[in-house]
Amino acid sequence: ASVAARREWDLTPVQDRAQIFFKAADMISGPRRAEILAKTMIGQGKTVVQAEIDAAPELIDFFRFNTKHAVDLEKQQPLPGEGSTNTMLYRGLEGFVAAISPFNFTAIGGNLAGTPALMGNVVLWKPSDTAMSASYVVYKVLREAGLPPNIIQFVPADGPIFGDAITASEHLAGINFTGSVPTFKRLWKQVAHNLDRYRNFPRVAGECGGKNFHFVHKSADVQSVVMGTIRSAFEYGGQKCSACSRMYVPDSLWPQIKQGLLAVHQQIKLGNPVEDFSTFFSAVIDDKSFARIKKWLDHAKTSKNLTVLAGGNCDNKQGYFVEPTIIETKDPQDIIMKEEIFGPVLTVYVYPENDYKEVLQLIDNTSPYSLTGAVFAQDKNVIDEAARALRNAAGNYYVNDKSTGSIVGQQPFGGARASGTNDKPGGQHYVLRWTSPQVVKETNVPLTDWKYPYMG
Fold first, then answer.
1. In angstroms, how far is CA 326 from the centroid of its own chain?
2. Buried b (16+ CB within 10 A) or exposed e, 325-354
3. Which residues of the chain have pLDDT under 50?
4. Beta bridge partners of 189
5. pLDDT number for residue 20
6. DSSP secondary structure string, 37-56?
7. Which of 9, 60, 195, 284 gives a 20 to 30 Å CA spacing to 364?
8. CB–CB of 286/130 below 8 Å?
9. Stretch (H or E) spanning 388
10. DSSP bridge partners of 215
11. pLDDT in tens, 409-432
12. What is the DSSP secondary-structure string of 345-360?
């Protein structure tokens, strides 16, 4: 049904497709806002502010900005030739796009499915099992805004079964993915294995998380470091792809920064964000996440290199609650500094302040990820030096700001290395990922001879 609907949808003028997404954005900003926020809070355990910045403004911005970029793209046309006109047609991909979305951002699901559809594609959208309710609201809003049936199909499914099904189809045209590295690698390998059966080379786009850093120079503003790190590491329980989980602090500032972190830590409240608006974050998403984070806490408690400074406890008697945890490491190469945790766990390495150049190289080479990172410094020379050293260490790089909080249209998001294909959703180039352009040359002057003038 999806493939059958593709041709007519692809031939629909982009201006008409755009009106659907503009209307959906208006619905989310107005009459459907409370519903989508409530279901994000209840279903995904978000506080009111975390739900608001995700399920409302970010999703609205994705729909409005991407739609504007799609309409503007039509204006980008090749140069005319003498006696001829040239036209670029921005077609959808031939086949279907599979959108596989995560639990942690309602807006991401709307973007992964919505942008390919906006560009004339048909989409099979598999939402996260733990974000089903809010994702379904997004789907219903799009349908109510005028999206025809079968353009986006909402397909809750077991992950491996869905992956096997889409990669076995000759009509697979693309995969738009956000999730774990192992899952993305599995999909990529399945696509490679089945290349001979596809009608096209499928577009494979993915964002896979990170081991995001805060680097602190001795010239940094201490309060900014403390407040930014608390928010980055612990908002939404560290369940953001961009959350800070490793921090590098000079020994000269560590006493002040440590004191500041521990003082704020004592004030952080865990609880039910729906019933108590003073809650800073709630339980982690499910039992699998809880078990994974607990293993890291157990590692921190038993390793001779690691010292738990605050937190370190967890409880799954009612919900999957993990305390915000701050750890100090003696070894900057400890595995806890390399692998993604996806929970409220921050590990700090204290370095001799004059060794910051070596630390910059350490940051670049420690983890396979390259998603986000932040440099805190007032020394302009150090800021420039860090930018050169960390050029490939982060796709979203912040100076004197926390590593989280990218905004559509302002900081298009994504990273390379193990963090993904760095397609930068939220930027004007993202819509190009989901088109298969066709150039049409129309000649207005008939050809009257087969010979060239020099031939006599």
1. 25
2. bbbbbeebebebbeebbbbbbbbbbbbebe
3. none
4. none
5. 98
6. HHHHHHHH---HHHHHHIII
7. 284
8. yes
9. helix 380-389
10. 248, 375
11. 999 999 999 999 999 999 999 999
12. EEEEEEE-GGGHHHHH
DSSP assignment string, 79-120: PPBTTEEEEEEEEPPSSEEEEE--SS-HHHHHHHHHHHHHTT
Exactly one of 58, 207, 235, 323 is catalytic; name it.
Answer: 207
From CA 295, how far away is CA 425, in angstroms rounded?
A: 33
- Do 90 and 74 form a contact (C-beta atoms < 8 A)? yes
Tokens of 237: 């329980």
pLDDT confidence of residue 431:
97
94 included as an active-site residue: no
Q: What pLDDT score does 1 carry?
A: 82
**CB half-sphere exposure, 39, CA atoms < 13 A:** 19
CA atoms within 13 A on the CB side of 260: 16
What span, in angstroms and rounded, lies between the C-alpha atoms of 313 and 298?
A: 9
Q: What is the pLDDT of residue 432?
A: 97
Q: Give pTM, 2 decimals.
A: 0.95
What pLDDT, on the 0 to 100 scale, is given for residue 2?
A: 86
Nearest partner of 342 among 4, 162, 15, 104, judged by Cα: 104
Q: What is the pLDDT of residue 140?
A: 98
Is 207 catalytic? The answer is yes
Q: What would the two tokens of residue 435 be?
A: 């088109």
Give the separation between CA 183 and CA 116, rounded to whole angstroms: 21
Show Cβ contacts of residue 132 under 8 Å, excluding neighbours closer than 6 positions.
Answer: 43, 156
Q: What are phi and psi of 200, to 5 degrees?
A: -140, 170
